[in-house]
Structures are given as C-alpha cells and as structure tokens.
Amino acid sequence: MATSLAKTLLTRAAFRRYHQASSLLRPTVVASSSPSLNLRRWFASYPPHEVVGMPSLSPTMESGTISAWNVEEGASFSAGDVLCSVETDKATVDFEAQDDGVVAKIIVAAGGGEIPCGTPIMVTVDNAGDAGAFKDFTPEASAPAAAPAAPEPQAATPAPTPVSATTPAVATQPAPSSGDRVIASPRAHTLAKEKGYGEISALRIVGTGPGGRIIAQDVLDYDPSTAPAIAEIAVAQPAAAAAAPAKAAAAPTPIPQPVAGAGYTDYSLPQSAIELASRLHSSKKNVPHYYLTIDLSLDSLLELRSNLNSTMKDGGITVNDLLLKAAAAAMKTVPSANASWMDSFVRVYDSVDINVVVGNGSTLYAPVIRDVGSRGLKAVSDDFAAATSALEENEETPTAAGFGDVGTFTMVNVGMFGVKSCAPIIREPQACALALGVIENRIVPNDDVNSEETYKESVMMTATLSCDHRVVDGAVGAQWLSAFKNHVENPMTLLFFFHFILGSLQIFIYNFFTPIWIRFTPTKD
Amino acid sequence: MSSDSATFDLTGSFETYNLESSPSDTITMSKSELLSHFELMYTMRRMEITCDNEYKARNIRGFCHLYDGQEAVATGINAAFDPEDSWITSYRCHCTALARGGSVSSVLGELFGNVGGQTKGKGGSMHFYNKAHNFFGGQGIVGAQVPVGLGLAFANHYNATPGKPMQVAIACYGDGAANQGQIWESANMASLWKLPMIFCIENNHYGMGTSMDRHSSHSDYYKMGNHIPGLRVDGMNILAVKEGMRFVKDYVGGGNGPMYVEMMTYRYHGHSMSDPGTTYRNREEIALTRSTRDPLEFVKRTLIEANFADAEEIKEIEKRIRKEVADEVKVAKASSPPTIEPHLFEYVYTSGGGKEQNEFPPHIRMPDFAKSKFY
C-alpha cells in the first residue's frame, strides 16, 4: 500500500518538476488533486506555481523598488487587484494582477532596495491549498527575462579577444561578434557579395557615409591586399591589457596629413596628444578641484629683480624664477600642499619639484625644475633657462632630461596672452597647481598716509591656485596662497630660505593650521 | 445532460435609430456553437493577459493595445459574418487577427518580432493583416481605417453578384475616433451610393484617457449618421452582438445602404501598455465591470443556465486553453527575428521587381515614365 502510494507520488512529483519553470507563464498540470503537504515536501518539488518577476511597468523602466505590498502570503487576489506598489524612477505605479490567484510567497520585502526588472519578487499559485508549500522557496535561476538581455550586451562588447600569437591571421579575426551590427547600406552589402569579399562585417572597412555608414563607394575603394595586415597586427598584439602602452613603446609613426572634408578638416592626433588628453580628462574627472584666487603686488619683486640683475654678472634672473622660488618658499611654509593623494594615504614630499608649463607655439611641455626649495635662485634660473632653450632647439619631442617627468607642483603662466587669471587643471598625482595671469598696472588704494592722492599705481598680477580637496582643504590652500603672496610682496624673505635652520623657524610659526589628515594621526598605544 | 440548442432572451440589448425593423428579441444557439464562442473568447482573454505579462517582462516592446473586456464584440461579429465579408479595425487588433485566420503563436510571434509572426515580424502590434481571411488590419492612425473600409465596401458592391446578397464591409473604430472628419466623409459616400458599409463604434467610454462626456458633445454614436440608420448593442453580451450583427448584415447586404452600429463595451487595461488605466477612472469602476458585466462570466453563466455545460467542464476547457496558449507562446518565442537576407526586402516590391515591371490593365492610365522621369 505504502509503496504504491509512494510510486504514485514519485511520478506525480516528476511530472510536477517538469512543469516547474521559473517563467512568468507556466503550463498547468492536469492532475489537480494532491496528497498532503508533508509528502510533497519529501520529494522537494513544488506544486504548480508561477514565479512573478519585477514587472516593467513602463517602457523605459529598468529597475524599481517595491514600496509596499498590498497582499500577504496566503491571501487570494482577483484580476484587477493591486498586488504591490512599485516605485519607478518616474512615479509610484501599482502592479495589478491579471488573473485570480493566491500569494504563495513574497520573495522581496517592501523597501528592499532597487532591483532590476525580471528579478523574482513573488510566487503565486492557483489553489489556496498549495500556498503553504512555499515557505522555503528560493528562486533557482534568475528570471529568463533578464537572461536574453544579458548575453546580448556581453556578446556585443567589442572584442579585444585574447588571441594567442600562434593563431594564423585569419581575415575574420577579430571580427565584431554576432551581437554587433555593422552599419552598411544594402548596396554595399550586395557589392561585397558580388566582389567575393564575403560578409561585410568581416572586412573592417571604415565607413564614410552618414553616421559612419559603409557605403558602396567604400566597398569599391576597399583593397583586400591591405586587409591581412590589419588582421595580423590585431592578432600579434595579445590584448591582455590596454593596447596603449604597447603602442607607445613602438616607434612613433609619422602623423598623417589633415584630411579635408565638406565643411571640416580632420587632424590626426599623435599618440602623445591622445595620452595628454586622456590624462587631463582623468584628472578633471577624478580630482575634486577647487580654486583660490589672490592678487599679488609685484612692485618689490620687480625692484629686487632689477637689483639682482645689475649686481650679478650675466644676470638673467626673470620674474618667473623669482615666482618659482616664492612658490617653493610657500611650500616650505605649508608643506602639506607638497603632497599626493594615494587613495589610502597621503604622501608628503620632502623636496619641491615644480613642473613649469611652457609652450613652443603648438605644443605644451612641462619640464621639471628639481628641488627648487633648497637650491639657490641662480641655480633654479639656470635650470629653467636650459629647459626653455632645449625647447627652442628641438622642434619635435624634446628629449632633454626632465621633460617627461612629473614633479610635485605645477606652475603655468598665461600672462603673455593678456589673460588675467586661469584656473588650471591639476596634474595627477600632484595636489596643487598655480596659474599666474598677466602683469599689468592697476590702480590700487594708496596706503601712504602722508600722500595727497588716495590711489596709486601698482604692478599687479592675479594668481589662481587649484587644489585637490582630498589633500589640501580650504584653510590649508588659503594659507599657502597667503604665504605665497607674502613671499612675493616681501621678496627679501626669499633670501631666508637659503638657510635651512631659519626655514624651520618659519615652519613653526606658520603651521597653526594643519590639514585634517594630519590631525587625525593615531596615537601610539 | 444538455440539449442541443436553446433560445436566449435578448430584450433590452438593442436600441434602434431610424429603423423600422430591429433585431430579434431572442436568439437560438446550439451548444457546440456557444461553446466554440466561449473557447474563442477565453483564448482571446488568455492571449491578452499573456501579452500583458510578456510586455512587463520586456519581451514585447513598443506599442501594445489590449482588447480584454471587449472579446464579445470581435467574437460576435465573426460569428455573424461570412469569411468573405471584409473586416478592418484599429490598432486594438490582436483579437480580431486571432479570430480572422490567426493563431496565438502567430499573433504573439508577431509581437515578439519573430519571423513566425503573422506579418513576418515586420508589422508589430498595430499592423496585423490577413488577406486570405479578408482581414485588412491593424491600423495605427486613429480613424484611418474607416475610409479604407469604405473602399472595401465599394469593392464588395462592385463585385457583387446580382440576385445574391452583397458581402459587407465593417470598419471598427473607437468612441475617441468617432468624430474624425474622414468618417463623416465616408458616411456621406456610403449613404449616397448605398454601399454595404458598417460603421462599427466600439464604445469603451474612453478615448485614451478622456472620458466620453469630455471628448464628445454627442455621445449617442449610433445616431451619428443623421439619416443613416443606427443600432446600439450591448457589447458585453455575445448573443446580443451576434444577433445584432446578423440583423445589420442582412440589412446592409440587402442594398439598403450603410448602418452605424454602436457596441457598448469596456476595456480593463489602459489605452495601451504605457497607460496604467487608473488615472482617469476608478478601480471600483473597473472592478464593478469585471464582476457584473464581464463577457466571459456571462457566457459561462449562460452555458450553465442552459445546461450546455457544468462548472467542471468549463474549468476543464479553461485549463486546456491555458495550456494551449502557453504552448503557443513557447512556439512563438522559439521562432527567430527576421534577417536582412532574405526577409528585409521581401514584400517591398511586387514579385518581379519595381514599378516599371508592374503590368497594369489597359484601362489604367499610368504616367509616361520616359517623359516624367524625375525620381
């Protein structure tokens, strides 16, 4: 008796397991009567049920949050009843039932965070008696609605497919995978077939039609003898990492001439320009910039410069050299600005290496002047002069020492163009960048008590400091800029910093305000 | 257990306008016929619910206008008509496509965009078409189907055999479309030339989201034809619809000119799948209609009261149909989307090439392409 019952249950369970699909519409089992719940659980199979996924309640809905459930487990509902309220990005929409049924299990609770469309949220059954069997139900697989969507984007990711160097260069490798659509006109397709080129997607033609479409002319211009070369290069580079470092290591190829089009001209970019562009982009994206501006009065500085140049033989001290020293002096005063953000810690550098941005007409370079802080003014001046002269000599990429290196601080001067101020982009991994504007005569209030005039003329310049807020907070940046102004307007203080001992005295006085990350150094236990 | 046919009372289901006669107050229907109607209506209902679920699962994209609640109209018209009568309707056409030569797998395949669909996956929800069964769509523009339906009526009139009743043409449109200008124009032509045209307004009381009182100054749509006779039918009652359409077909096919038919019906879903359907009407109203006027419930009750079937049998039929629909959905999903070769360019030109190669009968005067060559 028991064995025959067990046999019947076995076949029924197997039958039910066949029908157990985690799809939204499931077939109905013909056998409706069932034994007690306990026996069903023995065989770990569930009665006929539907796993309901998060519905897409508007055509643009990608994910939603269940804000409230209107039904409980075990409750029955009829067509038109609201099952739950779903918060979409646009509005809170009610999810209605289309059929009568009973809630067997609620998988996602209300307020459970944003879940993508298709993720199972509840299980419904037809018979109220079946509802109790789902206490331990877990959705086995993710909803099939998500599955067809998921393989498509994965297939469509452009294939830097790791191709081993030993595979022969086949013209179809690495063709865009089946998910990619090659945009070409029907005539181009036909032409490609006629000419025996085969599938147009394998040809890697760059389209010149609207929107980059491959048009008939492109297929006619296509020379199959050049194709294997492209495929070979693609194969030879095992694209484990980005192809950029490999390309940079290769010999620089001559830049092609600009291509004129209808109403535009395309200029090819050398690799250095592309790298610079991407560096700037990532800088602006990753670093939280903020900007501080201050006006500097250069009267005393210019006086010091003319004095120095007249007393020193082969003088050649420029305003720029003095400003470099002033910046280094400010760094000594506020050493926490001479630092780098290293994700989990901050690195403060001992010496001040300044990248000075110079240009030779069409390109910008930023040679590094090493250890501006402890070296003499003359040494700094000579370094800078050497860098600029190297620039004038070499029209192509200057390979002088220090041209590609990264320092700890950047200075850029845009004053030659008459620009009053500039907010520079910080060069990662530095923490600050200083931009200097045009040196011009401005009218300022006269602080001479004895004079009759209420105004006077002064040679002024606007300086803007960009700071990385992760390393240098507002107070520290302002301190730095104020120290810089102090050194520029009282240039005699620059002379103090030739001596290390006096320098440390200055550090003691100025460092009342420390950056937050220094304040939080852990105590030694 | 059940007698073969029964007579049902239809008093109160009709209102006439400008008509001396009216549909009969009773209808006799056999058990097999009523069961077949029930099965078709239930298939339509399950199919529309499936469309809803599949749309929410993002397997169907784009436009999707559902017909559940209005099944009796399509089934009744189909029951009263011959297969040679022409039928054209609006974008709410899934169930009409099913009734006229379609199957659940071809309808859903079309919605999924697969080649197995009724229009090869190239039409979608609003562009079903089945010439062999005289179903002419499936139209996206509101009210555009009526002048085309008039043309079908004209063709039927033209091709009529003397002595036999004409085949009729019916254009179904909604209450929201009823005030479109071209419909008035069509009505004039139909009445003038006494064409076998039926203007069928499926009045579900809402034009998208605007209720009838707010979008139409004259809401007795069956009287809209002025001198054209009209008939108002309870569109939730399959028997009334069938009897009403039988009457209309006899009248119109007999060469008496067009007729306006207003079907009082209701849709449970919103206008389309992007409309929740509850911002301009109460849930109570929908629930009330579901509980008191649902066409499927009516048929079930009728079957039981006439002793054609008992509740168990009906449940069995329902289960079977649910399974069939689910299987057909699987078949529809298994088909694949159309490909560039060969599907994309099929049915763009007539077979044999472009317009130069078409042969026209001599009485069709085509332009002289050699002279007017600017294309």
UniProtKB/TrEMBL annotation, chain A:
Belongs to the 2-oxoacid dehydrogenase family. Residues 49-125 form the Lipoyl-binding domain. Residues 142-182 are annotated as: Disordered. Pfam families: 2-oxoacid_dh, Biotin_lipoyl, E3_binding. PROSITE patterns: BIOTINYL_LIPOYL, LIPOYL, PSBD. Its EC number is 2.3.1.-. This is Dihydrolipoamide acetyltransferase component of pyruvate dehydrogenase complex. InterPro entries: 2-oxoA_DH_lipoyl-BS, 2-oxoacid_DH_actylTfrase, Biotin_lipoyl, CAT-like_dom_sf, E2/Pdx1, E3-bd_dom_sf, PSBD, Single_hybrid_motif. Residues 142-176 have a biased composition (Low complexity). The keyword NAD does not apply. Its cofactor is (R)-lipoate.
UniProtKB/TrEMBL annotation, chain B:
GO terms for molecular function: pyruvate dehydrogenase (acetyl-transferring) activity. Its cofactor is thiamine diphosphate. The keyword Oxidoreductase applies. Keywords: Oxidoreductase, Thiamine pyrophosphate. This is pyruvate dehydrogenase (acetyl-transferring). PANTHER family: PYRUVATE DEHYDROGENASE E1 COMPONENT SUBUNIT ALPHA, PYRUVATE DEHYDROGENASE E1 COMPONENT, ALPHA SUBUNIT BACTERIAL AND ORGANELLAR. It comes from Cyclotella atomus. Its EC number is 1.2.4.1. It holds the Pfam family E1_dh. Residues 41-340 form the Dehydrogenase E1 component domain. It is an enzyme of class 1 (oxidoreductase). It comes from the Eukaryota. The lineage of its organism: Eukaryota, Sar, Stramenopiles, Ochrophyta, Bacillariophyta. The keyword Oxidoreductase applies.
